[in-house]
Every structure is written in C-alpha cells, then in structure tokens.
Amino acid sequence: MTTTLNLSVEIDGVSRPLRDCDWVLRRPCGCAEAIMHAVSSLVTLTSEHEAWEEFYCDVPRADRRRRAVNAARKRGYTVALTSIDDAVRAWEARCPHGEEPEPGQQASLFDPTDPADDAVDVNA
Ligand SMILES: [Zn+2]
pLDDT per residue over 17-76, tens digit each? Predict the structure, then answer.
C-alpha cells in the first residue's frame, strides 16, 4: 500500500495542488527575481519561511542566511506562492526598472545627454 500526501493550497480563492505552484521571489519593484517549484524531487516548500530559506540556500550558515533574508525583506523583497503559469509569466517579463543600484554606485558612468554621443548624424 502506498500513501500519497496531496497538499493543496488556496490562492485568490482558487484551490490548487501545491505541486502546481511556484514560489516567486520579487524585487522591491515587483518584478520576479527568482522562481522555484513548491514541490520538487528534493524539497516540498509549504511555507513562506521555507521558501525564503531555499531561495537563500547558498548562504552557508543558518545565522548568516537568516540575516540575508532579513536584509532582503527590509529592502522590500517579497516571497509569495502563485500558480506555475503566473510564476513563469512573471519570470519571463523582463524587469524594466533596471538593476537595483548598490549603495555608492548610484553615480551614472556616463551622461546620456552628453552631446558627444550624438556626434554622428544618421541623416547626413
Ligand atoms: Zn522591475
């Protein structure tokens, strides 16, 4: 006899199997930074906490990982469960907001209004 545990979740009032869901890590701008299957051959991620831990699993130590997660949340990153379809759509949409600049790197390397860049007149 085989026992199969079928977890299901309710998203926006719609019940769906957890294995049809992805966790989405979103940037402060709302765009997807990473997505992850809620159910894989390796893990079953049943809570937001577990999803955060898994998104930051490459941070070697538990205390550092917790600090990295807390720092990300403070910067406005969020983790939410969605259908795989929605997650893939979010993942495929390119972030139009640009990379979040690191502190101290906010100065532009070039001035886009610099007339030197317009030296070539294509209508000449
Ligand atoms: Zn964005």
Answer: 999 999 999 999 999 999 999 999 889 999 999 999 999 999 999 999 999 999 999 999
Instruction: Give the global pTM.
Output: 0.74
What's the gap in Å between 44 CA and the centre of ligand 1?
Answer: 28
Q: How far is the CA of 22 from the centre of ligand 1 (A)?
A: 19
Question: Quick one: which of 64, 68, 71, 75 has its CA closest to 101?
Answer: 75
CB 32 within 8 A of CB 84: no
Q: 11: CA distance to ligand 1 center in Å?
A: 23
CA angle 55, 92, 17 (to 5 degrees): 60
Domain range annotation of the chain: 8-96
What is the Å distance from ligand 1's center to 13 Cα? Answer: 27
